[in-house]
Amino acid sequence: MGVGIVNRVLVAGTTLHFWSQEREIVVILSREFPGEVVHRPHPRRGGSWQWSAMMELKNQLTQARCVVAAFSTVVIEAALLGCPTILVGFGNGEQGQALNHWSYEHMAGIASWPLIRIAKSESQLVALVRERLTSQLNEHDRAELRRLALRVAYCAPGIQERIAEAIEAAR
Question: Is the pTM of this model over 0.85?
Answer without folding.
Answer: no
